[in-house]
Amino acid sequence: MRAFAYERPESIADAVGLLAEHGPEARLLAGGTDLIIRLREGTIRPRVVVDVKRIAELDGGIRETEAGLTIGARATMTAIGADDRIRRDFTALSEAAAVVGAVQIRNRATLAGNICNASPAADTVPALLTFDAVVVAAGPGGTRRIALDELLVRSGVTTLARDELVTAIELPQPDLARASAHLRRTRRRGHDLAAVTIACVVRADGRTRIAYGSLGPRPLLVGDDSGLLADAAAADAVKAALLAQLFTDASPSPRSMRASPDYRLAMLHVLGMRAVRTAIERLAGAR
Amino acid sequence: MTAQARRIELTVNGRSRSVEVAVHHTLLEALRDDLGLTGTKECCLVGECGACTVLVDGASVDSCLMLAVEADGASLTTVEGLADGERLGRLQQAFLDTGAAQCGFCIPGQLISAEALFASTPHPTRAEIEEGLAGNLCRCAGYEQIFEAVELAARDGTPA
Amino acid sequence: MSTGGLVGGSPPRVGGIGRVTGSQAYVADIRLEDQLHVKLVALDVARARIVSIDSSAALAVPGVRLVLTAADLPDPMPRFGPQWQDRPVLAIGETHYHGEPVAAIAADTLDAAEEAARLVHVEFEELPAVFTVARALAPDAPLVQDPSLRPGDPLATTNVLREHHYGWGDIDSVAADAEVVVEGTYAFPMVTQFAIEPHAFIAAPDGDGIAIWSSIQHPSWLQRVIAGLLGLPLAKVRVFAPDPGGGFGGKQHAKYEPLVAFMALRAGRPCRLVLTLEETFQAVRRGACEVHVRTGFRRDGKLAFRDIEASYLIGAYADIADRTVGKGSYTAGGPYNTPAVRILARSVLSHTVPSTAFRGFGNPQQIWAVESNMDEAARVLGIDPVQLRLRNVAARGDDFLPGDTLADGQWAETIQKTAEMIDWAGSVPAGRGRGIAVGLKSGPTTGLSYSTVRLLADGSVVVSAGTSDMGQGARTIFAQIAAQELGAPVDWVTVVMGDTAVVPYDQQTSASRSSVLMGNAVLNACRDVQAKIRVMAARLEGVDGAEIVVDKGEVRIGERIWPLRDVLVRGLGRLGGEVIGIGEMRKEADPDHPLGGTAAFYEFNCTAVELSVDRDTGDITIHRHVTVSDVGRALNPMQVRGQDEGAAVMGLGHTLMEHYILDETGRIRNLGAIDYRIPTSMDLPVEIESAIVENGDGPGPYGAKGMSEGALLCVAPAVAAAVRDATGVSIRDLPLTPERVWRALQETPSK
Question: By CA distance, what is B132's nearest residue in C?
Fold first, then answer.
């Protein structure tokens, strides 16, 4: 790897200071499972790598609040996949975290990192979108909250300022019952980057949220408030037609070597139907 | 730019080590080149194959995806730490008993991942073993004898 | 489970302790005093004309000792290769494939070498590349190889390196017997060995000679190559060959050892090169292949004729690829009695990674086509696929391959055992399909192995054998043979390998030959020791040697029996010493034979799978995978199982997920582990069962045959046949990825 300097700030203030000082020449290091690969490839060449893991105010915990759950910036995929509350109330996120790479990757990869890396194929982002996740970021001006759907711009790009870092992810818990499911399409059963990632939330009031990734520059969130998708009695053909409408913005890359555009679109529909069906079954089972 | 170095203090296989490392070197490079522990192997360098798996504070990680400096203050276990002098750990013995090691290159990583699996799941099912070792590629074996080794070691019960 | 040490038992692997403790030193683990680190410089294009190379910035990096380009090597450029000496030590004038090195750096640290490699400035002009059979054979195709490398060869002005014509009988005269003719074209992709140990090479000046460390499978061969290139006598070239971390054929022949050797001599210091995984994909692969098969059958399913035309897409340099084409195609007709067979196989050069030996050696590509064709024929004929094989498979002793070794196994038994294990006769669970296929491969056609066995004063044994133990367990086999023959416990046997200064000549480790060839050499060396023990016993007992039997660790004179060790100790007397035995096993060449020699034995395997297909996604779930190999005698059953199941899973790799993806210019897009998929522990059949047939009918020790390629040979056609059984769709191109299966299902009306 090309050489770089390494800093290990112990406070958010120090970290923000370093980011402000070095601007685009600095990169944040959390789990490293994306960053180290890109450093080795040479696709990024920072002058300084800022390790966030000694920052006192950041933690890897998952805390219950009045509004829902707050996940610390350093929480790993392993911790998220093992958390009973997430498994019960944010099932799609639990399922997504469990398939980010293999065990060794999950022990290091952080949820915050998965978001900030802003890959269109980010495994956890579709689930987070369906849960209306909010990202908490700290910068020189203080702390702000950004809806995840507004944070993501396109591959590798978020609305975070250069001198901001994520401190937590908030998952609001609504008052009504709901269930979720997560599916993905890969080239083998073993760990793989997904050609399609999809998450679905079905709520007791009949509203459905679906988010999908790997079919465009960023994962997209769509929804059906008519109650049709959530209706167990509605015919598959009718649901399929509605899904087709919801998925019109899907734009698979024509150049991808992981999957051809027509296959991706077809799988989006197949997985969409399956995810909706599973979420409905889970909601019924939970009642 | 000239390489920046940093002295790190860590425990490796129960022994305190203090070593100066280049900050842009990975933990894998530091283990093999600076600490002389060549049991941990280098293969894909992108966190896919698991040949470089070590335990860091009890968790299995791909050491090719960690900077050496990130291990400052940590407690590491590598394959060299699994035996107690001449006495092999139960997983190592089981790997020999079932013929799990063929060319041997993936084996250090498999052993460490299996150790990590035992720490959370002392009596794993076959499905849990498959999942737990999914991050360790083997090109020689059909994996079956590796799974059988883990099951054998689990039956033996006593900690490694 | 491991058991006792004698032949037929499964003692723990010799060398196993080093493997489970991490103490085994692979080449990359070796550190030499004062070593320099080498990095290669290659262009990120499929083919280019080199205009100029500016090394000045690279040389200015602190710690850089050498920047080598073609200009720094002898003129004419030294070339090497096992079939043609066509491969230059470094690219000269032009790069012929994506990844061909144009320069090499040697520096005090790897960091410095990497930095310098980035600073070598190469001015080049990208040239059009050919990387498909069609393009390579087109009349206007650029020539991959300079015609001057093949003087006098009429094919030298084409990209066809060689055409092989094999067969017997006259198709036209038997065509009338063929009431049913089934034909099709099949494609096998480019895949790479992906051993978990990347190739590694070290060269160091060694007095007036040179020492080489390499992950090489053929140390003696490498010694010859280096000696020839450097103009040194063999005795001044020492090759150390530590056990490779997997080879699968990709480490058989010299790749960068010559380069590193020149650098070491130039720099006067050891030079060490460890390839990245990406670089290994650019160094070795299997030949891709397009095969057209046309088979004629009688109504009752008996074969009338087989007509095959195959084009193997080999790489930019021949390596051993043409041999894989010849050998793989020669038996393409299959293990069947066929009245007339015609085979035309071409080696087609292309601007791609040089293909080389890879488990199966040219056979999997043909077997994919021929066995798929057999399955399609079974459908057309309305005959059960197992019955179709049984009706045609050669019986032991049949002259099924005229001019070659007679069928040497009861292959029908292997087929029947497979069918039984998968319950072929029973009904298939709903939604599933079953498929079956057979695979045949010739063992080595020539061979020469020497071994020395030293029986030391306390009865322990040192065996020297030049075989490469890359995981198949050769060390253990040889230890077992020596233990059995000399009455020593298996853990009293040390096996020395991998050092040409100390271990006698072995031709090579390939073609599943070593249990047979080196095994027999070890056995013969043991017999030599036994003969000397007999002389000792005769002297001690005052008896004629003819009355003494020395067998399997015992000395017998009439009713009296002694352990061999007792006679040894008494016989050596006060001076002590040892008894040295030398053994040789030779299989002579036959210059009149198209392959240069007949098959020492055949590997035969039958594979059957039961699977289901998710029609909406194309996912294949293999519920059961049964593989049965005809091994003669399992010298170590635990190791046999490990090799067979490993070969089966490797076969699933090219069947379900492995392939190089090239862009429209011929550059490889999926270098490295993220986008080149091999089976993980999660990708295995739900149940995989391996079994063996042992009839003691092999030429190796105790009736053994070679094994460990068989179980890979026919995985693909067995899976494709099962897919067809489950869905009604025949797919003729590998791999059967979910997307490709889905697409095939979309394009065909459902069953």
Answer: C681
